[in-house]
Amino acid sequence: MKDKIIIKDLLLRGIVGINESERVKKQDILINLTIYTDINQAAKTDDITDALNYRTLTKEIIEYVEQSSNYLIETLADAVAKIAILDNGAERVVVRVEKPHALRFASTVGVEIDRSRIDYE
Questions:
Q1: Structure pTM?
Q2: Which domains does the chain have, with CATH numbers?
Q3: Residue 107: CB partners within 8 Å, gap ≥ 6?
Q4: N or C: which end of the chain has fewer CB within 10 A?
C-alpha cells in the first residue's frame, strides 16, 4: 500500500518504565506514526466518513498513554499499533515510541515496530 498518513512528534506524558521512579512520576513520551491506508475514496468524495480520521486516532492514543502504566515501551508501541489497526482501520502502521532523556548520554531511546492487520488476527 502506498498511501500514508503521518503523525509526527506526538509528545505525551505517561507512566512507562521498570525503575521505581518511572512508576510514580509521568515522563515525556514521543510517538511517531506512519499509517498505511487507502485514501482513494476519501480523496474522491472529500468526505471524512470515507477517511481514516487521524484526529480520532490521536485522541484514542492520548487517552491510552495518559491512563496506562506499561513497564516496557515495546508494550506501549504494540498497544498504539492495535489502536491504529483494530480500532481505526489502518492496514499497516509503523510506530516509533521514544523516551527523551531516558539515558544519560543520549537524547532519546526508543523502539520502532511495523505491524499489519495480519499480526492481530
A1: 0.94
A2: 4-120 (3.30.1130.10)
A3: 100, 101
A4: C
